[in-house]
Specification:
The protein has helices at residues 3-13, 29-38, 52-57, 119-129, 131-137, 189-199, 201-205; strands spanning 15-19, 64-67, 79-80, 99-106, 110-111, 114-117, 143-146, 158-161, 164-167, 170-173, 181-183, 207-210, 216-221, 226-229, 232-233, 240-246. The protein is α+β, with helices and mostly antiparallel strands and 257 residues long. Strands 1-13-4-16-2 form a five-stranded antiparallel beta sheet.
Length: 257
């Protein structure tokens, strides 16, 4: 696959899976290589991990992360629960992180898929059948996301905003639905209808699961696709991924022609 074909696949389908062997001496070199191929800007450090107090509490900050942060503390054959759907960038504005790259170094013994929810596609379908519900998702205080890290002023680690809207001329999503999200549903039946749809019927036709093998990389448009890590059981060695995020979307100069 050429760079242009890969860029087109990520931008049109929302994601792509490629082979990208990792180098033992620097597991993030593969991220730098693919970023150059995709025409991405430098890897992006989210707002949360630029907070001085957060940096003191969280050992691993910056634009590149290992998942889990400390694989040496993971016991063999341990089980891990799955995540809820979210977009990367807890405190980012709508469309703030456009591209995420996940690289598999070690896969779990069982489970460990990444489930993608094409939430922008689901939103467009909702807007046809229930315009009021779709509009409620675009309200400036529809969704509040917050960190649970202990800091002196926890209010600064909260970000309210629309769940969907337009950013840089494209429909973008913040749809996230876990323990660090608060939906403004009280007295808002339209928003509750929207959530009922996104949490149920929408998933049937707008989701896909990807199970990476070691040496494979998942690239997806974080501003258009929500995702979650599924439950898994480790083997003799723990599941180990690396991640990088980017404020730009894949781009090739020939696309301007």
């Amino acid at each position: 696959m050429t760079d242009l074909e890969l860029i087109s696949e990520v931008n049109e389908r929302g994601y792509a899976v490629i082979s990208a062997p990792a180098l033992e001496d620097d597991p993030f070199n593969a991220h730098r290589d693919i970023a150059r191929s995709l025409g991405l800007s430098d890897a992006y450090t989210p707002v949360l991990y630029r907070d001085p107090e957060v940096c003191e509490v969280v050992g691993q900050v910056g634009p590149y992360n290992e998942i889990p942060r400390d694989s040496t503390s993971v016991l063999p054959w341990s089980e891990m629960t799955g995540q809820q759907f979210h977009v990367d960038g807890l405190l980012e504005p709508l469309g703030g992180i456009k591209t995420t790259v996940l690289h598999c170094l070690e896969q779990a013994h069982t489970g460990g898929e990444t489930e993608l929810f094409f939430s922008c596609e689901a939103f467009l379908k909702l807007s046809v059948v229930d315009e009021e519900a779709a509009l409620s998702l675009q309200h400036s205080e529809a969704l509040t996301r917050f960190a649970t890290i202990a800091v002196a002023d926890s209010a600064r680690l909260r970000a309210a905003g629309p769940a969907f809207g337009w950013a840089d001329g494209e429909l973008a999503t913040r749809f996230s639905d876990g323990t660090t999200e608060l939906w403004n549903t009280p007295g808002n039946p339209a928003l509750q209808r929207a959530l009922d749809y996104l949490r149920g019927p929408a998933l049937e036709g707008h989701s896909a699961r990807v199970r990476l093998a070691p040496g494979e990389m998942l690239i997806f448009r974080n501003d258009r696709v929500s995702h979650r890590g599924c439950a898994y059981r480790n083997g003799d060695r723990p599941r180990r991924f690396t991640r990088s995020m980017y404020s730009s979307a894949p781009y090739h100069r020939t696309l301007d022609r």
